[in-house]
Amino acid sequence: MQNQRQFPRIPVVMLVRLSPRGAQKTHKALVREICSHGMGIYTEDTYKKGDFLVAEISFVTRQGDIEESVFAEVVWVKPIEEANEYAVGLRFNGLETEKPKLYAHLKYLETRF
User: Fold this and answer.
1) Number of domains the chain is built from
2) For position 2, what pLDDT does the model report?
3) Is 103 helix (H, G, I), strand (E, B) or coil?
């Protein structure tokens, strides 16, 4: 089966904090892959396609730490019944213009994979 993805995914294992847009309570999720346009996560929390979230993302780089809060939209949700959790796909909104340092770092990582 051929990969239909438009952007290369960077495999990672890191935690991200998520909150529904406008809410103050955050939930942790495990990031399994990320790219300049979105990320795939595992979470115990229930989201549905079309939900808008704020994701707090942190990277440690040679040029310094990157800590950003970015807007993301839930584009798909798949239950993982045996683990009592969900695989979720998130699409970033406005990352290139609103968070150029994070966007540049992710674009750099995409060239490495």
Assistant:
1) 1
2) 45
3) helix
Question: Has residue 92 been placed in a domain?
Answer: yes
Handedness of CA 5, 43, 90, 40 (dihedral sign): negative
* Cα gap 104→66, rounded to integer Å: 11
CA distance linking residue 84 with residue 10, whole number of Å: 25
Can you tell me the distance from the alpha carbon of 57 to that of 67, in angstroms, rounded to the nearest whole number?
A: 6
Task: Provide the pLDDT for residue 1.
Answer: 40
Range of the domain at 54: 10-111
pLDDT tens digits along 47-67: 999 999 999 999 998 889 999
In a domain, 1, yes or no: no
Q: What is the pLDDT of residues 13-22, one digit of tens each?
A: 999 999 998 7
Residue 91 lies in a domain: yes
Residue 33: pLDDT band with limits 50, 70, 90: very high
If we measure between CA atoms, which residue out of 59, 66, 67, 82 comes closest to residue 10?
Answer: 59
Rounded to whole angstroms, the Cα distance separating 82 from 112 reads 34
